[in-house]
């Protein structure tokens, strides 16, 4: 196993209260790792620390060959991260514009991604004219347009209905299989976690810590039938059992 | 709601006509609408008012261009360097609170009694209004969008150009519209003092001195129209440019 991200004894406090004591975690290259846990277990904070947005109080982490141009982060509040003064096309183009790529290059990338995600909209109109679900997908595509080697995704499916949720999972999987980035996915939905990831890391809260790491042996591609399979439920049960060790329901 | 917009003005004119028609107040202080609008028609038909309108419009336009030329870059720059803004905050707030006409006598000594001093007072005091609003807009841009651009690896300049400038655009318009209102106020008032023979403010005083009250009301009305039209132009521009506002 080749790990891309190594986290050693990361400590973080908020307003005097300790969020993590000593957090240790390895994240493998070219795999999808889900972080599953209750609210307040510091999942988003961990991604923010790794992305360099939030300072940690102690410990170290390394990300092999980190480069902003090969890194994307899909925020939970996608609506706030799209730019309403830019058309849908210009929104998608933004990260590549920052990198100084030509209009033709950008148009070609958008075309490829649009096909992979079976997504279409009026590209000359504005994000606020799209539905919430379409905005979500637009934010998603914008993060993938640079073909990142490392992708952080925070609760990407929360605003979608079940059908669109399944579709986006399918497309994210297709993207993953085509380009093999390393993906760290935060979720509090077990089904999503088991459906998409190679490994599920279960977080507990107060203080936040890693409770368990569950390897997911299901083969890719995973379709709707996978969701009904016995192997799927075995992994799901293992995650649930780990979760129940700390949470009393 | 638009169809109700006419109700108020029509009611106003009817009440005005009734007051003067039934001689409820001295006709010298309040001439009838017919007398006022007759006078308005006359100063337009004999062309006598045009030099005043052009002079006032010219002073307002130059003042605005100078104010925007100072206020926009200064506001963007100060907003971008928050420590610099905080250092100057007191001075900016103080200047914003200072009645602009208080410095008019000083400006007359420096710039002479002609157009230059009127324009300088209007331009400089309204540029402070623009600086304040633009800097405020820049400093209060939504952090989530800036963060998103930072994560994409954008440089500071790129973030400023692609995100912060647009984020602050609604507030920039607030500044610009406030500044225009200031400028109209200051220019009309300054025209009433000395150093000019043309201008709507000058005309109001002229009519007053000659006890031509229908003329005075007509000139006051024109001043109102001017302010209203200028504000409407910028409101329209704002709606066009800041199309995403409130969405």
Total DSSP helices of chain A: 9
**Record field, number of beta strands of chain A:** 9
- Could you tell me the mean pLDDT of chain B? 94
> What spatial form of chain B do the alpha-carbon principal axes imply?
globular
List the secondary-structure elements of chain B in sequence, H or E. HHHHHHHHHH
Strand count, sense and closure of the main sheet of chain A? Answer: 6 strands, mixed
The main β sheet of chain B shows up as: none
The count of β-strands of chain B is 0
Report the sheet-strand fraction of chain A. Answer: 25-35%
Find the structural class of chain B using helix and strand composition: mainly alpha
Task: Please give the order of strands in the largest beta sheet of chain A.
Answer: 5-6-7-3-8-9
Radius of gyration of chain A, taken over Cα atoms and rounded to an integer in Å: 18 Å
End-to-end span of chain B in angstroms? Answer: 21 Å
Helix % of chain B is over 70%
- Contiguous low-pLDDT stretches of chain A (5 residues minimum) are none
The computed structural class of chain A is: alpha/beta
Low-confidence stretches of chain B: none
Q: Largest interface here, residues on each chain?
A: A-B, 23 and 21 residues
Integer-rounded radius of gyration of chain B: 22 Å
Shape of chain A: globular
Query: How much of the sequence of chain B is in beta strands?
Result: under 5%
């Amino acid at each position: 196993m080749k790990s891309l991200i190594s986290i050693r004894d990361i400590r973080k406090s908020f307003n005097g209260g300790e969020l993590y004591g000593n957090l240790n975690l390895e994240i493998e290259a070219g795999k999808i790792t889900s972080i599953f846990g209750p609210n307040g277990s510091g999942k988003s904070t961990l991604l923010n620390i790794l992305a360099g947005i939030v300072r940690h109080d102690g410990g170290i982490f390394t990300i092999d060959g980190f480069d902003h141009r090969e890194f994307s982060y899909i925020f939970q509040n996608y609506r706030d991260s799209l730019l309403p003064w830019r058309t849908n096309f210009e929104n998608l183009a933004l990260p590549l514009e920052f990198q100084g790529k030509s209009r033709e290059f950008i148009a070609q990338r958008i075309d490829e991604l649009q096909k992979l995600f079976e997504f279409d909209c009026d590209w000359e109109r504005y994000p606020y004219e799209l539905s919430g679900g379409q905005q979500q997908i637009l934010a998603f595509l914008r993060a993938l347009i640079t073909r990142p080697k490392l992708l952080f995704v925070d609760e990407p499916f929360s605003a979608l209905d079940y059908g669109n949720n399944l579709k986006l999972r399918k497309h994210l999987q297709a993207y993953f299989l085509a380009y093999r980035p390393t993906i760290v996915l935060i979720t509090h939905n077990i089904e999503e976690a088991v459906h998409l990831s190679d490994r599920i890391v279960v977080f507990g809260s107060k203080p936040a810590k890693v409770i368990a790491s569950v390897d997911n042996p299901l083969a890719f591609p995973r379709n709707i039938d996978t969701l009904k399979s016995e192997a799927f439920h075995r992994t799901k049960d293992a995650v649930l059992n780990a979760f129940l060790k700390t949470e009393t329901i | 709601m638009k169809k109700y917009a006419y109700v108020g003005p029509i009611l106003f004119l009817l009440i005005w006509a009734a007051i003067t028609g039934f001689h409820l107040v001295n006709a010298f202080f309040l001439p009838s609408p017919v007398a006022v609008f007759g006078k308005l028609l006359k100063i337009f038909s004999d062309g006598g008012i045009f030099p005043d309108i052009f002079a006032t419009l010219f002073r307002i336009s130059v003042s605005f261009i100078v104010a925007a030329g100072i206020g926009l870059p200064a506001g963007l720059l100060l907003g971008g360097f928050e420590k610099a803004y905080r250092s100057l905050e007191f001075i900016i707030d103080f200047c914003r609170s200072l009645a602009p006409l208080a410095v008019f006598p000083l400006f007359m000594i420096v710039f002479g009694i002609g157009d230059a001093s009127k324009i300088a007072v209007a331009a400089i005091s309204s540029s402070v209004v623009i600086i304040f609003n633009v800097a405020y807009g820049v400093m209060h841009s939504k952090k989530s969008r800036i963060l998103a651009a930072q994560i994409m690896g954008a440089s500071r300049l790129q973030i400023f150009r692609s995100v912060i400038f647009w984020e602050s655009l609604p507030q920039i318009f607030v500044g610009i519209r406030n500044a225009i209102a200031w400028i109209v106020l200051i220019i009309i008032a300054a025209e009433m003092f000395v150093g000019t023979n043309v201008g709507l403010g000058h005309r109001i005083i002229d009519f007053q001195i000659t006890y031509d009250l229908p003329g005075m009301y007509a000139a006051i009305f024109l001043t109102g129209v001017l302010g209203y039209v200028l504000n409407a132009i910028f409101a329209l521009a704002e709606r066009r440019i800041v199309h995403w506002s409130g969405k």
